[in-house]
Structures are given as C-alpha cells and as structure tokens.
Task: inverse folding
C-alpha cells in the first residue's frame, strides 16, 4: 500500500512536469501581456525596464527553466496584476471555491442517491419516470442558463435568496467560511444548486442502473431469502455493491466542479478561484494562469489517488498491488 | 401450527407470469406433501417450473409473476394468510433457500460474519456476540475448518464448495422446518457434490428439517431423496417414493429421463435422448403437454390427463407398468 502510494506520487510528478510544459507554452502562445500591463503613455525606456523586471525579455526556454527552478522552491511566480505570489493569490481564493464545490457535491449525493435508488427499485412507477425525465433536463440544461433562471426566480421574482457574493462569513480555523451562518448558507444555496444539477442527474442515472443490475443478482435474492428487511437489503447489500462507480464519478466530478466552477462563480459573483482565473485571463496574468492550471492538475492527481484507496476499502477484492494499478 | 402437520403441504399451487405475449403458467396446479425430516427430489428440465415452485413457497416471485391459486401450508400455517412482514419473518427462519451458484449467492463486498449474523438478527433479538457464536457453530457443523478465522473472511477467499457450505450454514442458522435447495451442487465438481449431498442428508436427519432438492440430475435424487416429483412444463407428471419412481417409472417422460442418464447407456452407443425439446410455456400443446415428444401418444392424449390419485401418482393415459430395464 505504501509502495503503491509512493509510486503513484512519483508518477504524478511526471504528469505535473509534462503539464507545466504544455501550459507554459500554451499561455505564451496566447499573447503578450505587456500591452495590457503598461499604459500607452509610458516611455520606451519604461517599457524595457518593466519587461526586464517581469523577465519577459528572456527567450521562452530560459523563462521556463527559471520557472521550474523557482517552482521547486514552491514559488510559481508573482502575479503581474497584483504583484503578490500567484500561489498566495490562488490559495486566498481557494476556500471559497472548495466550499462551493463541496456544498454542490453534498447536494448532489443527498438528492441524487435516494432518487436514483427509488428509480431503480420501482422503475415503472410514475415518480420514477418523472425522476428519469427530470434527470435528462439536468444533463441538457447549460449551467449559465440554469444559474440565470435561478437568480431570476428566487432572487428577482420571489426575493427569497440573495443572488451574489458569499454573505457573512465565519472564521473556521482561520479560514472564512459561509456555511456556518444562516446568511452564508442562503448565499450558498443558489450557486450550489446550479453546480449540483448536472451531478444530481449523473448520480441518479448511475445509481438507478446499478440498482437495477444488483436487483437481478443471486446475492440479493439470497439476502431476501434470509428474511432480511427491505431496508437492509437495499441499504447494505445493494448500496455497498453499487457504490464503487458512484464514488469514482463523485470524486472526478468534485475535481471538475472545483476546476470549472468558472461560469457559476462568474454568474453569482462568488469570490473563488474560477473568477480569479477569468480575471487573470482577461489581463493575461501568466503566472496566475499557469499556477492555477498546475494546482488543478495536482488536485486531480490527488483525487484519483484517493479514489483508488477508497476502492480498496469498498471492495475487498481490490487490493492495491505494489506493481501499480489498472 | 399443530405438531402433526407435515412440514410442507402444497395444494394446487399455480404461479403465472403476465407477459406481453400472454400468460405463462410457470407453475400449474402443483400439489405435494413433505413430512418432517423428509427429502423430496423435484426433478425436471430447465424451464419446467421447479425453481419457480421453490420461489413461490418462499414468497419471492417478482413481478410480473404472481401466485394465482392454491395453498401453501408450512407446518400447517397457510402462507397466503400472512402479511408481508410476517412473510419476511418466516423467510430464512422457518423456511430457507439455497441457490445454484455458490459464486453468486454470497455478497462479494460483505464479510462472512456479517452475512451470517444478519440472518439471525433479522429474526431474533439476541446480542451480536450470541449471533456470532451461533454462526461459528453453524460453520463448524457444515465442516468448515477453523471457523473462527473463516468468519473474518470475504467470500472470494473461499472455494466454490466452501462457499456452498457457507450458504448451507446460513440456511441452517435458524433451524428451519424446511430448506429449499435449488440445484445447489450443479456448479460443483463431483467429489465436492458427493460430500455436500452426504452432509445435507446427515443434517436433515439430525435436525428433522425437511428438504426439497431441486435438480435435473436423477442420479443425485436416487442417492439422496425419500420421494420424487417429476415436473414437466409447469406440472407434476409423476410422483412417489424414490424407489417406485426410479424402478417402476410410469410416465414416458420419466422413462426418457432415466434412459438418458449416461451411465445407463452401453459404452460406444449413442446416448438415448428424448426427441424434440421442451415446449415454450406460451405455446403448449393442448391436452397432454408431453404428447408431441411422446412415443406412446395417441388420440386420447388430446385430452388433459389428470394426476392419478395413488401413492405412486402419474399424469398419463398410457403409463408404463413394467420395471425399468436394468442397464445392459
């Protein structure tokens, strides 16, 4: 197990290296930030001084090598726009995004799993059919539209919920969080629901398919033949077996929700990493973009590792072999 | 529940499946009785309704199937009079079932101790420690070495034969009056099959548990059962004591089954077989369902034959009366 984890971490370093190369070259190709950063009235001498100070006068390969050198020291460069370390900038915004993403995934599981189970157990009933029809909507409606509609209905027409910002935050271990205050929760609800919708649909479909498959198995028949209550047959025998694909999807979706909460954060003016990324792209703040993408890659790697470990806990037949996994 | 009532009496049981193509009579007017401690072989081809008979008794028929008629009396209790919760209390407690494929019947992600104790705790308010103790005992009874360690294992750590023993141990946990075994040795190799058969016979004798052994293998029945019922296309076509049915088989179908046992056929000759194949339950021939495959069929067989009312009963207008030939 330990060997497995170490091996995976070494593989991750390689992935990170390749990613940094791609991201660095990609961002370089997008355009030069100098024209945006320096006012048109600046003199030529000022321009050259700024370019040199930002290190943009060096050739790309040298810029990259310097970046890698600093990266090993934990320094991913300073933001051009804010003049503070990019990594610090991102970590300041990260709790807001993590909170939103966690809340969205929690909603997705709490709503999606029971609905999926129900739809799987009684596939012909009217509620089950409605659930499945609804899940198609969840798949097909674009996030930005759902967000706007939710704002329209709950913030504008009904006036029940606020439409933007985090609301009042409470410090938890020195990190500001919204979910501990009523006002914060009210602010969380709409963006959380917007992000959760697709995942609710996904989890419903996965759970339903898994449940229907499990219902036909002999071990479920045998469990019923033992005289177990329906609650135990469904809650233990079926659920534990169908949890593996669901856990995978939840984890991977958690990663994408964090990485791509961009649209939702923009619509709801949620001060998270996604909004930072959009702002940085607008001013071509290269270090922040590069640092953001690398952090997202690192996060995906970490999540995948956790999923692999979760497998071995859920399914005794899966043993993490020291020779790596498939 | 009187003490003299047989372990199980099934009267005119019918289980139908309402499908888009029509009604499938999977179990059609089936009656039999099993005394305490007795072993009955329920024999037939795939699709003859023998497993469905078992599921009907367990109350585990899934939609679109439904028990549409007849009575099932377990220890004298009419199962139709029970509500779903009472029926659940009865399953695994007074009547237990063992399935065909031991690789599939145990839940792969739960430890054996969980799967055993839950069967006790579903029916009795005992402490977890007590349930564990009884589980260990049951494992020892079915001949699993070092049951203490084995309780901690997952199903995939057992061989097929061992898994079937675990399933049998689970069936025995609550000392049921009746166990329904649905081809439990079909998936096992012959030596393991022999061990399990002997084990089951001993356990039934020791505990007074009645046993329905569902199988397509007459040679298994010959060594194990007290009585035999032969099913064909949802109906019982012949029933009686194992000696009577196997030595003096009356129904042409039973004869066909006996003749097609490989060890009864002389070496180097083609195996005898019953011509044709099991009819679809949707398109059964009128009258005797077997007539299209039967060498003895004539006009009379266009009528529905009734099961004769004698200890060695047969559903045929032209039953055999002679002894089954000894193999050459």
Result:
């Amino acid at each position: 197990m330990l060997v497995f984890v170490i091996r995976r971490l070494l593989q991750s370093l390689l992935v990170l290296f390749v990613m940094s190369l791609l991201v660095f070259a990609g961002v370089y190709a997008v355009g030069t930030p100098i024209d945006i950063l320096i006012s048109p009235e600046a003199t030529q001498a000022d321009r050259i001084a700024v370019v040199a100070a930002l290190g943009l006068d060096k050739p790309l390969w040298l810029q990259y090598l310097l970046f890698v050198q600093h990266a090993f020291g934990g320094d991913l460069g300073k933001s051009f726009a804010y003049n503070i370390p990019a990594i610090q900038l991102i970590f300041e915004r990260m709790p807001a995004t993590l909170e939103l993403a966690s809340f969205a995934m929690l909603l997705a599981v709490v709503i999606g799993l029971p609905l999926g189970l129900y739809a799987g157990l009684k596939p012909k009933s009217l509620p089950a059919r409605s659930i499945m029809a609804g899940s198609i909507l969840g798949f097909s409606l674009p996030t930005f539209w759902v967000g706007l509609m939710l704002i329209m209905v709950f913030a504008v027409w009904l006036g029940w919920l606020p439409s933007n910002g985090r609301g009042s935050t409470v410090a938890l271990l020195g990190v500001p969080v919204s979910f501990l205050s009523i006002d914060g929760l009210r602010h969380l609800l709409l963006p959380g629901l917007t992000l959760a919708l697709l995942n609710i649909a996904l989890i419903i479909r996965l759970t339903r398919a898994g449940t229907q498959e499990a219902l036909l198995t002999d071990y479920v028949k045998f469990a019923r033949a033992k005289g177990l209550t329906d609650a135990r047959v469904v809650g233990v025998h079926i659920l534990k077996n169908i949890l593996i694909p669901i856990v995978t999807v939840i984890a991977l979706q958690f990663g994408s929700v964090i990485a791509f909460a961009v649209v939702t954060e923009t619509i709801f003016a949620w001060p998270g990493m996604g909004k930072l990324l959009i702002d940085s792209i607008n001013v071509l703040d290269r270090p922040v973009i590069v640092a953001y993408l690398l952090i997202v890659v690192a996060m995906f790697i970490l999540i995948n590792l956790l999923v692999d470990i979760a497998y071995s806990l859920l399914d005794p037949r899966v043993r993490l072999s020291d020779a790596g996994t498939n | 529940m009187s003490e003299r009532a047989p372990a199980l009496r099934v009267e005119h049981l019918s289980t139908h499946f309402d499908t888009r193509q029509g009604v499938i009579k999977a179990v059609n007017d089936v009656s039999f009785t099993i005394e305490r401690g007795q072993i009955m072989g329920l024999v037939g081809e795939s699709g003859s309704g023998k497993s469905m008979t078992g599921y009907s008794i367990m109350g585990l028929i899934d939609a679109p199937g439904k028990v549409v008629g007849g009575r099932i009396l377990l220890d004298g209790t009419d199962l139709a009079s029970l509500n779903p919760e009472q029926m659940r209390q009865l399953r695994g407690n007074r009547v237990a079932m063992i399935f065909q494929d031991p690789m599939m019947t145990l839940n792969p992600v739960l430890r054996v101790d969980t799967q055993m104790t839950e069967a006790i705790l579903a029916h009795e308010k005992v402490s977890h420690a007590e349930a564990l103790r009884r589980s260990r005992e049951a494992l020892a009874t079915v001949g699993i070495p070092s049951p203490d360690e084995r309780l901690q294992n997952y199903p995939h750590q057992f061989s097929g034969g061992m898994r079937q023993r675990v399933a049998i141990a689970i069936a025995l946990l609550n000392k049921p009056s009746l166990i329904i075994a649905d081809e439990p040795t079909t998936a096992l190799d012959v030596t393991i099959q022999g061990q399990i058969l002997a084990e089951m016979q001993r356990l039934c004798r020791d505990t007074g548990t009645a046993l329905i052994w569902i199988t397509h293998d007459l040679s298994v029945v010959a060594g194990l059962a007290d009585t035999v019922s032969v099913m064909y296309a949802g109906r019982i076509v012949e029933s009686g004591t194992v000696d009577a049915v196997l030595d003096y088989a009356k129904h042409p179908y039973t004869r066909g089954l006996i003749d097609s046992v490989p060890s009864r056929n002389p070496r180097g000759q083609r195996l005898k077989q019953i011509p044709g194949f099991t009819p679809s339950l949707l398109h059964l021939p009128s009258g005797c369902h077997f007539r299209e495959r039967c060498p003895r069929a004539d006009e009379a067989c266009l009528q529905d034959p009734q099961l004769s009312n004698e200890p060695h009963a047969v559903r045929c207008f032209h039953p055999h009366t002679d002894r089954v030939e000894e193999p050459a």
The radius of gyration of chain A is 24 Å. The first helix of chain A runs from residue 2 to 30. The beta strands of chain A are 170-172, 175-177. Residues 167 and 184 of chain A are 5 Å apart (CA to CA).
